[in-house]
């Protein structure tokens, strides 16, 4: 039932400001794609253009094989769930869900049976006669989903639909939405600023920043092989440490921190070994090993324990490296017993550490 | 559930900050003025209409039985109703425009509504006399255009009363409607449009029903003000467009029949209250989203 959505070199400018720059992505029929980014990254603007509320300054949007760039929103036939649900407060739940069917001039009996099915789908069978104000946040959310799906749109758009819910309900709804999307086979474009949500729900995630799509990849690739320092920092917890390249030694690439500490990383791929050029290494807390003794002598990064935070299944240790008080987060087993002020050594796993050139416009 | 919390929280905050004594001390001077300047004279006037050497209903009898007075009452109701409908038809699009236009333009249109609103009713009523009189702007224009050879009789007619009252009362309708339109979240019309509604359907199915609390409030205010309107009908109306307030004015200032004026005032007051209550009931039946006016 889903149809592909193709965004071709889409730009959107407001005055002189480019809110979206050259967005290009082909979303397969039935795929779940998240647009992930901080506020002001252009993800909502892009969604509004797919919905037809905004006209792209240039570029094309295709649904299936049809170019819909010039088609008004009310004739695109796309389902949409708004951030604050946008339920009509003067209509009952039934009337809200029946609205798109009435606009399509369906017969009354047909409308009744389809609204009934939609209510079943979101498990609100008995609440058809309530007004939106009489429902809880989670129930309103479900009505919004039912209303967006009842006319069987090939594409469903969601604009941060879970932002107003508390954490537990949010996680429940994540699974429900994902299941619904999969069982109906509808193509989903999902806007969120919550990287966890994007990772758990999506087939692919497009990370946006300053109006640009920085990386489009499946959640695993995004997490393990971030394409830019921004993606590395935005998705999951990431240590970014400024270094310069010194030499290639027997124990791997020898690097120097900004504070002058030397350390080496085994199996680290250095594409441009230029000692003049500042770089950043990116390593996840769970890929760094922490030890009390520098067994391989001089090749591990020395740091001072700042704080240990017990988090249930593990302990997050904050280690200060160098004189600039740069903090590195290291994930250790839950009952690790480091004390603040203690000296410890960090061992990086070269195969799970990324190296980025420290460009001038990087952020 | 959680949606209502901030609202209630705000209320209890002010209750914590200011005790009952503070509230009363703020209200008292105004309350005193109200009793001396309004409640007492109105009470005197009303009681005067019932008591004339003992209890009597003779003034009410006269007001109800003499055709002139019932005709004036019915005319007053009719004119107030027409004025309200005209104000709604003219005012709603203006309110809608102000709520839709972007910054400098919405201010310009709002100023066009508000500046006359701040101008004296007397001045605005005289302006209509200038426009509508035999050799006024409108007649001159019509003759110059060849629409008519003789100047039309526009002033001192019911038409003039309705026209001028609609103009004077327009802001009382525009402002509540604008307020209601402004509180409609932008994503509701967007959602309706997304769900397949044409722009016209978006308006009639979503925007208009949600603006109804403002429409009701505006109509109620306009209607009640129109019922008791004095200056404008007295200036631009003629003997054939006499309204209740003007009639009461005549009774007190020219005929000096205060008890009868009191009776007429009582009838007008009761009519107004009954209609206001009916309006409110209608508003309360409006499901779940009334503005509370």
From TrEMBL, chain A:
<dbReference type="Pfam" id="PF08402">
    <property type="entry name" value="TOBE_2"/>
</dbReference>
<dbReference type="InterPro" id="IPR008995">
    <property type="entry name" value="Mo/tungstate-bd_C_term_dom"/>
</dbReference>
<dbReference type="InterPro" id="IPR005893">
    <property type="entry name" value="PotA-like"/>
</dbReference>
<dbReference type="InterPro" id="IPR003439">
    <property type="entry name" value="ABC_transporter-like_ATP-bd"/>
</dbReference>
<keyword id="KW-0813">Transport</keyword>
<keyword id="KW-1003">Cell membrane</keyword>
<feature type="domain" description="ABC transporter">
    <location>
        <begin position="5"/>
        <end position="235"/>
    </location>
</feature>
<comment type="function">
    <text>Part of the ABC transporter complex PotABCD involved in spermidine/putrescine import. Responsible for energy coupling to the transport system.</text>
</comment>
<dbReference type="GO" id="GO:0005524">
    <property type="term" value="F:ATP binding"/>
</dbReference>
<dbReference type="InterPro" id="IPR050093">
    <property type="entry name" value="ABC_SmlMolc_Importer"/>
</dbReference>
<dbReference type="InterPro" id="IPR027417">
    <property type="entry name" value="P-loop_NTPase"/>
</dbReference>
<dbReference type="InterPro" id="IPR017871">
    <property type="entry name" value="ABC_transporter-like_CS"/>
</dbReference>
<keyword id="KW-1278">Translocase</keyword>
<keyword id="KW-0547">Nucleotide-binding</keyword>
<dbReference type="Pfam" id="PF00005">
    <property type="entry name" value="ABC_tran"/>
</dbReference>
<dbReference type="InterPro" id="IPR012340">
    <property type="entry name" value="NA-bd_OB-fold"/>
</dbReference>
<keyword id="KW-0067">ATP-binding</keyword>
<dbReference type="InterPro" id="IPR013611">
    <property type="entry name" value="Transp-assoc_OB_typ2"/>
</dbReference>
<dbReference type="InterPro" id="IPR003593">
    <property type="entry name" value="AAA+_ATPase"/>
</dbReference>
<keyword id="KW-0472">Membrane</keyword>
<comment type="subunit">
    <text>The complex is composed of two ATP-binding proteins (PotA), two transmembrane proteins (PotB and PotC) and a solute-binding protein (PotD).</text>
</comment>
<comment type="similarity">
    <text>Belongs to the ABC transporter superfamily. Spermidine/putrescine importer (TC 3.A.1.11.1) family.</text>
</comment>
From TrEMBL, chain B:
<comment type="similarity">
    <text>Belongs to the binding-protein-dependent transport system permease family. CysTW subfamily.</text>
</comment>
<keyword id="KW-1133">Transmembrane helix</keyword>
<keyword id="KW-0472">Membrane</keyword>
<feature type="transmembrane region" description="Helical">
    <location>
        <begin position="105"/>
        <end position="129"/>
    </location>
</feature>
<protein>
    <submittedName>
        <fullName>ABC transporter permease</fullName>
    </submittedName>
</protein>
<dbReference type="Pfam" id="PF00528">
    <property type="entry name" value="BPD_transp_1"/>
</dbReference>
<feature type="transmembrane region" description="Helical">
    <location>
        <begin position="159"/>
        <end position="181"/>
    </location>
</feature>
<feature type="transmembrane region" description="Helical">
    <location>
        <begin position="77"/>
        <end position="98"/>
    </location>
</feature>
<feature type="transmembrane region" description="Helical">
    <location>
        <begin position="21"/>
        <end position="43"/>
    </location>
</feature>
<feature type="transmembrane region" description="Helical">
    <location>
        <begin position="202"/>
        <end position="235"/>
    </location>
</feature>
<keyword id="KW-1003">Cell membrane</keyword>
<keyword id="KW-0813">Transport</keyword>
<feature type="transmembrane region" description="Helical">
    <location>
        <begin position="255"/>
        <end position="279"/>
    </location>
</feature>
<feature type="domain" description="ABC transmembrane type-1">
    <location>
        <begin position="73"/>
        <end position="279"/>
    </location>
</feature>
<keyword id="KW-0812">Transmembrane</keyword>
<dbReference type="InterPro" id="IPR000515">
    <property type="entry name" value="MetI-like"/>
</dbReference>
<dbReference type="InterPro" id="IPR035906">
    <property type="entry name" value="MetI-like_sf"/>
</dbReference>
